[in-house]
Specification:
mainly beta, Immunoglobulin-like, 3 domains, about 5% helix, about 40% strand
């Protein structure tokens, strides 16, 4: 058996804005502080030749641009003051490097996003490049030496791991290899650094806090809540595309800041978004958040519903089409429900995108997950397997686009063939068959209907209970052999998992209820011949047929029913009866002739 894996992608994304704060000692994976670390801040404006020079990086998570704060000053912060790291979670195993650079003549080095190697600076060959990664408390200290020989401008860059990816470890859970969508922007640091609020002093051990917005995009595609599903074809069922809402879809900015590498939605260009005091407060939205599901063309789409939850799915609230989200069906905007296409074979690509108001709503309501419910069915004779997955795409301000794909739950139906012949192998038409779920049902005339339920067929042709006629007419499933002696049943439900707790519903969280391998997906049905061809005996005994995902395609029939001819019983009437009939006819004939002769004699 196989377990369907739920795709989970936890991505850290940087807003590209470096904020430098003084360092504080953190316990692993938390925001618990030790005492404020002492720093070597000298009142002598002249660089000494004895102090150690160092750069300490503190790497941690934030959840929206509103948490970025202003640019730091390289000094330590007192715990509990604003801004500080209260409630933040550190990031372990983030890789960094530092190199020392020499500015070209007449160049002022301030921003390595703008100023480039060779054009504006060269690498100092007298300094050996240093690399390292953050510890369990999110810190990484680069000791660059002591004395004036260590003075200069250093370039700090986030670098990839041994696999060429930007990754980190969550020390609170132990999860490793988590993805950083976009590394922090590189930055220059002077050692020693002039104190920002007292330019007569120097800082020999600078502390910086580059940070990343961390989003946990947990994609979970289900069908009727599980990873597999089967029901009589033609009945309604639904697929659920459930996604953890990423942080940073909306932020209310109340302080000046600059968002680098921002995609301007007005003209599609990449630029810096400078939010100054005249723009505050400023509503900062993600460029887009889209859920796209290219539904299998065999599915018939009846409608979709978009919902959110803030309590891990205990309750779901509907969002409003147009106001909170927009829908495109096959790249055409749809502005009202139902969102439907009931033609098998047609493309059914559904894209749901949050509006700016929708992003603000889900953020302000503290919603944690969004789901799109696709209400579907298939044609009544559908056989086979349908798999379905969905994609999410979003772009947070200043980030690279995020794209993720869910796993693929599956829907199953099967069918089988019956061959009806006489003992000589000649095809027989006109035989009518019903099917039952068990041998006991077959013997009790309890047969399967088009709604997937079982009904008792009474001797007078009625059923118990009566077959529903609204809103959809329900009929007992029957098949009649044609001139070639062929009959078949299609679109039958199959068993695809072990119902270990007996509640009739697959629960992916229970390992024993994992979806079976395809070769194990099957179900037994019992065939009853309820009407035989003229001149032949009924089958009389129910026959079991095992239906799988492939039986409907098999060349040979799954069941061959050979009928015995009816026997020739003796005539029920005797010769005395025949004689009486002859005498009666003779008497009538004689009487009629006598009347005619008498009539002629009277006329003469």
């Amino acid at each position: 058996m196989k377990t369907k894996r739920k795709w989970i992608s936890k991505a850290a994304v940087s807003l590209g804005l470096l904020t430098m704060f003084g360092g504080v000692a953190l316990s692993a994976g938390s925001s618990a502080y030790a005492a404020k670390p002492a720093q070597n801040i000298s009142g002598n404006p002249v660089s000494d030749n004895t102090s150690d020079r160092s750069i300490t990086i503190w790497k941690y998570e934030i959840h929206s641009a509103s948490e970025l704060g202003g640019r730091g000053d390289g000094e330590s912060l007192d715990p509990g003051t604003a801004p500080d790291l209260t409630g933040k979670k550190v990031m372990q195993d983030v890789n960094f490097e530092i190199i020392r650079v020499i500015p070209n003549t007449g160049v002022d080095l301030t921003d390595p996003l703008i100023q480039k190697e060779t054009t504006h600076y060269t690498i100092d060959p007298t300094f050996t490049r240093q690399t390292g990664h953050t510890a369990a408390d999110g810190s990484l200290k680069f000791d660059v030496g002591s004395g004036k020989t260590a003075d200069g401008i250093y370039l700090v860059r986030e670098i990839t791991d041994s696999n060429g990816k930007y990754t980190y470890t969550d020390p609170s859970t132990g999860e490793t290899g988590l993805e950083i969508n976009k590394p922090m922007d590189p930055f220059f640091v002077w050692l020693p650094q002039t104190k920002r609020d007292d330019t007569s002093k120097l800082i020999y051990d600078v502390h910086v806090h580059p940070k990343n917005i961390v989003t946990n995009t947990d994609l979970d595609k289900t069908v009727e809540g599980g990873k597999g599903y089967s029901i009589k074809a033609g009945q309604d069922f639904q697929w659920e595309a459930t996604t953890a809402l990423p942080d940073g879809l909306y932020s209310e900015i109340d302080k000046e800041m600059t968002i680098t590498n921002w995609l301007d939605p007005a003209d599609g260009t990449i630029k810096d978004l400078v939010i100054d005091s005249t723009m505050l407060p400023y509503d900062l939205h993600a460029n887009y958040f889209k859920i796209t599901d290219d539904l299998n063309s065999s599915l018939l789409l009846k409608d979709i519903v978009v919902q959110v939850t803030d309590d891990d799915g205990a309750t779901w609230s509907d969002l409003s089409i147009g106001a909170d989200y927009k829908v495109e069906l096959n790249d055409t905007a749809v502005n009202a429900h139902p969102i439907t296409n009931m033609t098998a074979g047609d493309a059914k690509k559904v894209m749901v995108s949050l509006t700016n108001d929708g992003m603000k709503k889900v953020t302000n309501d503290s919603d944690t997950h969004i789901r799109v419910v696709y209400k579907t069915t298939v044609e009544q004779d559908f056989n086979g397997k349908i798999t379905n997955k969905y994609d999410i795409d979003y772009l947070l301000p200043g980030q690279d686009p995020v794209n993720d794909t869910s796993d693929e739950p599956e829907y199953y139906n099967g069918g089988f063939d019956i061959k009806k012949t006489d003992k000589a192998g000649a095809d027989l038409s006109g035989a009518i068959f019903h099917i039952a779920l068990t041998e006991e049902d077959a013997e009790a005339k309890k047969f399967l209907a088009s709604d997937g339920n079982v009904y008792t067929l009474n001797d007078d042709g009625t059923t118990t209970p009566a077959l529903p006629q609204t809103p959809v007419v329900v009929k007992l499933l029957t098949s009649t052999s044609n001139a070639s002696g062929e009959a078949r049943f299609d679109g039958l439900k199959l068993d695809w998992f072990t119902d270990s707790n007996g509640n009739g519903k697959q629960e992916p969280s229970i390992p024993s209820e994992a979806t079976w391998d395809e070769e194990d997906i099957k179900k037994d049905y019992w065939v009853v011949e309820t009407t035989s061809p003229e001149g032949y005996e009924l089958l009389k005994t129910p026959k079991k047929v095992t239906v799988t995902l492939t039986t409907h395609n098999n060349t040979d029939p799954e069941l061959t029913v050979v009928n015995e001819p009816k026997t020739k019983l003796p005539f029920t009437g005797g010769t005395g009866t025949t004689l009486l009939i002859i005498i009666a006819i003779g008497a009538i004939t004689i009487g009629t002739a006598s009347i005619a002769i008498d009539k002629k004699r009277r006329q003469a």
